[in-house]
Amino acid sequence: MKAAAALLKIIQTKIGIVFAFFLPLVFFLFWMTGYNDATTRIDQLHVGLVYEASESAIAEQMTGSLPFQIEQESTLEEALDRMDNGKTDMVIALPAGLADSAHTDNGAKLTYYVNDRNSELVKSVMEKMASQITLMANQRVVPEAQALPIQAEIIKTNVIENFSTSMLPMILGFIPYIAMMTMNIQFNLSSMFLKRDHSKWSIFFGRQLIMLAVAIVASLVVSIIAKSVAPVDASFFGVWGFELLVFLACICFTQLGFALLGSAGPLFNIFFIPIQLMTAGNIISPEMLAPFYRHIGSFLPVPNGVEGAMHLVYGGGSASTYALHLVLIVIVTWGLTVLRTFLAKEKAAAPAARPAASAAH
């Protein structure tokens, strides 16, 4: 019992106990509020609609009846490009002469393009809605037909052949956050040991130098492994450059927690884990989250890392927007850490022990 009492007097023990309760509570708080009624928000998803002028009447009927944000596209190529860049979740292409073709023996086709890079929930919703939209088109174009002359054709873009490949964006975008958070825990302890003999700025810039080297080497190793084990669409240097930004953003973000809260810094970093996983877009589209959470991911390293990695791994679209967000995260969080370090009072070094007085002759 004496050992237990002694342990409870140590601040690290108390922080550990707080962790045991804090982590489940933040997951409850954010996931239960963020995912609440998510499946009822399909009206927040975006669908591109491509059609010829002759099919404007049918297109207008679809626009007024579909439970989506409908965006009319001028060409199929532009529509698919917008879908690749995450602007839309599905593209519907109405063929010219749809009504005429529906009355022939060969029938007609409504073509639906679904990005396989989307979350499983979004893909499921879109494929289910494709059947309903096709049935609605049959009822309006050929209401007298017994069979269904208009059929659905679903074409998936950026197809994922191997399920393990679908895990790669999480490895590239989320795991660096956990790794750098753990590293900064140890670096914070090391810095405390050095405070007696070194100034705060020498310790700070020494840490920055080591962490920069870690970011370069770790991102290089991760990129080599990623290109070796999976069919990554982007070039090696494209993956390495982006992954370096992910590591730097995670380093600077998790370092800020320790600059602000000291030994309680891990609470800051853990606090953002459920938010980042929720807004990363691989579980559910951010548009389907509760309104408060939809745009938070743009300001955090993991959602930008995961979304950008999806473009790099699967192809289609550009990761430049997410790379820019990561650069801004690095600049802002590192700047705040420098400011906090500047404002922190530096403890005076302990005076050197005076030599003992010489013995009397």
From TrEMBL:
A GO CC term attached to the entry: membrane
Record's bilayer topology term: Multi-pass membrane protein
Major subcellular location class: membrane
Superkingdom in the source lineage: Bacteria
Chain ranges passing through the membrane: 12-32, 167-189, 209-230, 236-260, 267-285, 322-343
Stored Pfam families: ABC2_membrane_3
Location(s) in or outside the cell: Membrane
Domain (ABC-2 type transporter transmembrane) ranges: 15-337
Keywords: Membrane, Transmembrane, Transmembrane helix
Protein name: ABC-2 type transporter transmembrane domain-containing protein
Organism: Paenibacillus phyllosphaerae
Source taxonomy: Bacteria, Bacillati, Bacillota, Bacilli, Bacillales
